[in-house]
Amino acid sequence: MARVSILLSHERSGSHLAGEFIGALANYRMVDEVCNPGALKPKTHRESFHRFRYDYMLADPAFLLEPSRARHSAFVAAFFEHLQSIKAPHNIAVDIKYGHVHNFEWWWSPALERPYLFNFCEERDIGIVHLYRQNVVEATVSSAIADQRKDWHSWEKGADSRDAAKYKVAVGHVVHRAKLLEEQSRLYREWTSKIRKLELTYEEIAAGLGSGGETEARLGEFLHSKPRHPFKPRHQKLTPPLHDVVENYEELKTACRARGLERYLA
């Protein structure tokens, strides 16, 4: 039977680079952000979680009118079986962001308890590739700059010809988001600790994917596959060192020191 794995990550963590590598593995198909209607349009993509939920509710109105844990568990299982059927006979990896995990909850979800999705993965032995960025300040600055540039990926128009501009960032917002991301990543590492998983960092894949080295070997071994051809990524790291790209870097450095984030500026 085809394997199902989850690529779990946060924004600006290198998930598209990791997903490109997984999609290059023999007998694997990578499913983009299933819970993001901007990535997979529900009207046109059968893989979309929102499309599946819409069709599921039409077929079984009791799913909403008479909700139960048993019905919800069956719904989540049906979604992953649906993805398997679309991509059969290939193995699949499903991109799910931290901010999308709540879609798999039922009606009761205490904020700091382990999300249902991870209970489901543990029960079904669904493996997780957990990808996160160790430098949370770089991650949040990268996100802020991408918002200003209006491009988010290295293959988008203009990404390869960009000048060495500097950008002023909203320091308070960046530092606040960095602290949240630091805590989120800690929680997600804890919540997935009992699941069969591989932990990788942005720093590892940015340096290692495309070199044919240890990082590629670890991913291939975990997913029981190898690339069909030597992997040559189209993605590349865009954001230069913070002191080169942040116009108000000294202000950022002061704010980071005040919030205990100075180690990310070394």
Break the fold down into its secondary structure elements and pairings:
Elements: E1 4-9, H1 15-23, E2 28-31, H2 49-59, H3 62-65, H4 69-87, E3 91-97, H5 116-124, E4 127-132, H6 136-149, H7 171-191, E5 197-201, H8 202-208, H9 214-222, H10 242-245, H11 249-258
Parallel strand pairs: 1-3, 1-4, 2-3, 4-5
Helix pairs in contact: 6-7, 7-11
Low-pLDDT ranges = 155-161
Architecture, CATH level 2? 3-Layer(aba) Sandwich
Provide the residue-averaged pLDDT: 92
User: What's the CATH class label?
Assistant: Alpha Beta
Biggest beta sheet summary: 5 strands, parallel
Determine Rg (CA atoms, Å).
20 Å
- Termini separation (Å)? 47 Å
Overall strand count: 5
Q: Examine the coordinates and then state which fold CATH places here, giving the name of the CATH topology.
A: Rossmann fold
Identify the notable features of this structure and list them briefly.
44% helix, 5-stranded parallel beta sheet, Rossmann fold, single chain, alpha/beta, 5 strands, 266 residues
Q: How does this structure look, described?
A:
It is a single chain. This protein has 266 residues and is of the alpha/beta class. The protein has a single domain, classed as Rossmann fold, CATH 3.40.50. Helix content is 44%, strand content 11%. It has eleven helices and five strands, in the order E-H-E-H-H-H-E-H-E-H-H-E-H-H-H-H. The protein has helices at 15-23, 49-59, 62-65, 69-87, 116-124, 136-149, 171-191, 202-208, 214-222, 242-245, 249-258; strands at 4-9, 28-31, 91-97, 127-132, 197-201. It has a five-stranded parallel β-sheet, with helices on both faces. Helix 7 crosses helix 11. The longest helix is centred in the C-terminal third of the chain and has 21 residues, at 171-191. The chain is globular. The relative contact order is 0.18. Mean pLDDT is 92; it is low at 155-161.
